[in-house]
Amino acid sequence: MWCSRNRTDGGSAIAPGGVLWTLFCFGGIATVAQVLLLREFMVALLGHEVVIGVFMGNWLLAVALGSVLAGRLTVGQGRPVRDARLLACLLGAQAFLLPAQVLLVRNLRTLLGVPPGEWVELAATFWSSLAIVLPTCLSVGLAFPLACRILTASRPGVTPASAAAPVAWAYAMDGAGSMAGGILLTFALLPRLSLAAMLALLGTASLYAAIRLSGVLRRGAAAAAGLLLTGLLAVASLGGALDAFQDRLATMRWTGLGALPPAREASESGGGVRLVATATSVYQDLAVTEQAGQFVLYANGHVQFAYPDSAAVEHEVHFVMAQKPRARRVLVMGGNPVGEVAEILKFPVAELVHVELDPMVSALVRRTAPAEFARVAADARVRFMHEDAGRFAARAGGQAFDVIFVYAPQPTTAALNRFYTVEFYRALARLLAPDGFVYTSVRTSERLRDESAMLGASVYHALAEVFDTVLVTAEERNRLLAGGAAAGLTFDRPTLFGRSREAGVETRFFRPEYFLGCDEIDPAKTAFVRRRFADYPGLTNRVLQPVTYFHEQLIWSRWSGAFLHRGMAQLGALRSAGAPWLAAAAVAALAAAGSLAARSAMRRRAAGAWVQGLVVATTASTGFAAMGLQIVLLFLFQALFGFVYARVGILVAAFMAGLLPGVAAGRWMARAERLAVVSGAMLAAEVLLLGLPLAVVAVLARASVGGPPAAGVGGEALVYAAVALSGAAVGLQFPAANRFLGAWGAAPGRAAATANAADHAGAAAGALLTGAVLLPCLGVRGMLMALAAMKSASALCACCAVWLTSGVRSVDRNGMG
After folding, report:
1. Each residue of 478-493: pLDDT tens digit?
2. What's the count of helices (H) and strands (E) in the chain, helices before strands?
3. Strand, helix or coil at 347?
4. Closest CA relative to residue 171, chosen from 761, 815, 751, 768
5. Around Cβ 373, how many Cβ atoms within 10 Å?
6. What are the pLDDT digits (tens) for 311-345?
7. Residue 14 DSSP code
């Protein structure tokens, strides 16, 4: 049994292995819940990276609140059986909390009254995500200090040194469970099970683990309860209950996103729009709706394309192909295989290559429009490739394409921003024939005011840095054509009319005469657009300086709150002024002044307060830096590979994989009697987190970002390695911080709660500020340098804490003095 009832005096009768195993289960279930809810929020809030920062920040903030609550909890103090049963209740509650949270997220847009296609305001994003994750996170925050209190309660004469071992073991088991949960979710659960099945499986596991820990049932009865729960799960699966629940979840999601009408409207209209297919790939959540014979494909809440839509497709394709109607080799990146691809095949092309990252897109189109897709697939000139467009462009040089169509969605995320960068356009230039050209587009505004003008300018200047000629239309969605001098690009109306008419392509809706009155290529209007873009000569979009993404964020923030908008704009203006360094210098000066003042305090009590404050500040900064670095690495992962949606679990596992050896080393060092050894763990973590951002900057400076090797397997491994090293730094420092706090009088449970709260509060601030504000404003390099500067200041705080402790004799009777 994990919990024995043989004693009635409230003393310890808890098997330590059972408590550690419970923490392992708690860590795994919490990680799976975190990843599943993050994926749900990314879809519900339209896949914005800001969602990652806000969600992770709120998750960690709520965990920190739970740890603070545990530190102040006095009920059950010194009564391990009662603590164990409370821990079991917290674990068992996860079986019911996670399904309820998923239901709330899937109905979130409806509950908030957000119209389809609109961004959710930042304030609503923050408070709604905090309210939804709060119950789970409070449980996670409470669980760790409770477990530490149970593990240390039975040890007579507990000292900071002797308490270090069980606390480190608890921290390690929690981290091991998180790592196992991330790996299991990524490689076993997500590829094979529906969301409903995963929720049922996790609920069964958490209930069984809670029964075992609580001790309310003897060993045989607990095993029988486990068999009963497993049987109920099997019956629900075989009886179709899980499939029905999954269908209901799908309807909730796409109703909230506006793809389906509310149930009342659907019944009144006799059905109208219906959901005909859904799929969850490793890259995104997909759905196809149908109304009156027209299908619409959605990806993560965004409309990708509609089909059939002959009028729009003809005007789009013929506007571009009029530049080179006799093109022989055409590359299409993205787009509709039964729309744009089919229309281009009407021209005398010899080869058309269609590149689409997600094979599930083609599968859904094939399922819903089989005849049209079969006609395109049967054409010997077509070659379908399922590969990332950036990776294809980087590796497939010398293809000599005459025309390249880039159908990239608006650069609202890091993954999408990379299709508007100098690096991507350089890769495309290597694919072009000498007289070939590239077509792309970006949505701005007709008047081109403020952020809209800067957004368009950043893409225009990125193209202009690579190509000799760049033409841009004057409309709400600026269409851009770019190529060399030999491409013969023109907006001359009679010329385009003549080329289109001579092509002789049969159409239903488009006529060559369209060019003679085409308003978006009016010379005066296009000249105005070029002048507006020329007003911002320094705005060039790059992978490591994503100014297009930044200005898209500014447009979003304008609708999310004036305060955030003004703050982001000012930070963006200070990007080149070294604001992070000035802030770090101020923090360092403050830390030095405060520490010198504390050094002069002769009384032990005053010095102790200063030391505890410095240790808490250092621990919080470590959480901030580690989480800030993870957000930067997530951004880089998106920018290089574009499928962080599929790798969130493994990135969490990589952090925990580094955390475990860090905790092991920190535990060994924290148990030492000599202050120098304990201090070494604290300072080693500071050095590691100071060096990591600088190392990433150095690697990025040498790597070919956007192409091999940065975007290959080696680049992915480097991201995982950096995440693991940040986890090692956190794990190394936590036992040492706990030892310092205990040495200055904090009880073991309260010391663990304080250190855990500081760690998670700092990480919460790192996620919120980095993801929502700092990274878009400062760019990748600026953010990395700011993190390094901050760790320089916190390293000074850590040195001061060590200095103060070494200057006060007999702080700890067991050797800290």
Report:
1. 999 999 999 999 999 9
2. 30, 11
3. coil
4. 751
5. 20
6. 999 999 999 999 999 999 999 999 888 989 999 99
7. B
